[in-house]
Specification:
alpha+beta; CBS-domain; 4 domains; five-stranded antiparallel β-sheet; elongated; disordered C terminus
Length: about 450
């Protein structure tokens, strides 16, 4: 019955369906393979092989938005045509029941032959698949009618959803890039030290001066009436090469900067009793929200190593050095004058002693929690703000499964916080209670 109804038109429709499935399988392989080849990898292949397909691969990798748009449009056209022809053929041969059976078989066959198999092959052999698919993909990119259709559809998309990303082609978010770096480290493509440096560089762009500065209470300063000998003693005692000079109407403003080399030179010339303010140099003031990346470029270009940080009211809130900026990229830099102390110390009983000036985000990384870092920069500020009053020693608050206790204070400032995992303590006590009940 079916054979009698199977006409020449049906045969050609079946052939077209098979050809479309083969084209879709090839396009799926091409899309996956070309997306997995980076610009650097493609250029390395082109330099080593020197073939036409390798050079085409390098050109496509440098402009991925061109081949992606062309491939997506072609895949959409082929998928629509294949489903349309399959539905017509099934209806002609089997009627309404045939449409349901054809729909199920089409989903299975399409997923296996045109999605899973070619994409898996492209994942396992990305270079080989990319080289094989480069020629036809380049031909698609250069096909004028397809270019017109692609541009028209992208233009329509930009009208419906205007955005820079759509006009410039595909982009990778910061979190996706961090995930790629993490996966590369796990696959031993890059070293873990390289991963940490890359992550530091990515996060560096979001860091502002307030987050890395030395806060006002920790600043080492010299009063305006100090002598050269006295200022030099302060510099030697703390190992600082630059000292802010205090002065102004209330005697608590920064009016200049003293260089240790200037003080040493004046001391050797016998001018130790002269006022240190005679050697004062101009000092740079910056807002607390200034991006550290931009500040570091200014320090390099204008040759200054220290800046005073002021808040929106013009009050001094801290200072920042070129070393502070570099430490955000390469980690803590400890010299012969620094006393190396761990800002976060793990105790044998599972608790932590955390300095009040530690950044909340840094503690989040250590404890693997999500403490709020939007309103407060430091752990001391987090505890102070959560309690909503100046705490006494021993006061605590529970956040995200941890108890934060004010361990040491300096006036109104929290200098040391004890962090205790409350969840683990509760979990350890639970079995004992169950045993007693039984």
């Amino acid at each position: 019955m079916i054979a009698a109804n199977f006409s020449g038109t049906d045969v050609w429709m079946l052939v077209a369906i098979v050809i479309l499935l083969l084209i879709l399988a090839f396009l799926a392989m091409a899309e996956t393979a070309l997306n997995r080849i980076s610009k650097v990898k493609a250029q390395a292949i082109a330099d080593s092989m020197g073939t036409r397909s390798a050079r085409q691969l390098a050109r496509l990798a440098h402009h991925p938005e061109r081949f992606i748009n062309a491939l997506l449009v072609t895949i959409t056209i082929c998928q629509t045509a294949q489903a349309f022809l399959t539905s017509i053929l099934a209806d002609r041969l089997f009627g309404t029941v045939g449409l349901i059976v054809a729909f199920v078989l089409n989903v299975v066959v399409f997923f296996v032959l045109a999605e899973a198999v070619p994409k898996t092959y492209a994942v396992l052999h990305p270079e080989r698949a990319a080289l094989v698919s480069t020629g036809p993909t380049a031909a698609l990119v250069g096909f004028p009618p397809l270019q017109l259709i692609s541009r028209a559809l992208i233009g329509l998309t930009n009208v419906l959803l205007p955005g820079k990303g759509l006009k410039e082609g595909p982009f990778v978010s910061e979190q996706e890039l961090l995930g790629i770096v993490e996966a590369a480290a796990e696959d031993e493509v890059i070293e873990h030290e390289e991963r940490e440096l890359i992550e530091s560089i990515i996060e560096f762009g979001d860091t502002v001066a307030r987050e890395v500065m030395v806060p006002r209470p920790d600043m080492i300063t010299v009063p305006e009436d100090a002598t050269i000998t006295g200022a030099l003693d302060v510099a030697i005692a703390h190992g600082n090469s630059r000292l802010p000079l205090l002065g102004g109407e209330d005697g608590d403003d920064i009016i200049g900067l003293l260089f240790a080399k200037d003080l040493i030179r004046a001391e050797r010339e016998g001018r130790g009793d002269d006022p240190a303010s005679d050697l004062s140099r101009p000092v740079r003031f910056i807002p607390e929200g200034k991006p550290v990346a931009r500040l570091m470029r200014e320090m390099q270009a204008e040759k200054f190593h220290l800046a005073i940080v002021a808040d929106e009211y013009g009050e001094v809130v801290g200072l920042i050095t070129l070393e502070d900026c570099l430490e955000e990229l390469v980690g803590e830099i400890v010299d012969e004058y620094d006393i190396e102390e761990l800002a976060i110390r793990a105790l044998p009983d599972g608790e932590y002693l955390v300095e009040g000036g530690v950044q909340v985000e840094e503690l989040n990384d250590v404890l693997h929690v999500r403490l709020p870092a939007e309103e407060w920069d430091t752990v001391g500020g987090l505890l102070f703000g959560t309690l909503e009053h100046v705490p006494e020693r021993g006061e605590s608050v529970e956040l995200d499964g941890f108890r934060f206790t004010a361990e040491e204070l300096d006036g109104r400032r929290i200098t040391l916080v004890r962090v205790t995992p409350v969840a683990e303590v509760a979990g350890a006590e639970a079995p004992a209670a169950d045993t007693a009940d039984h």
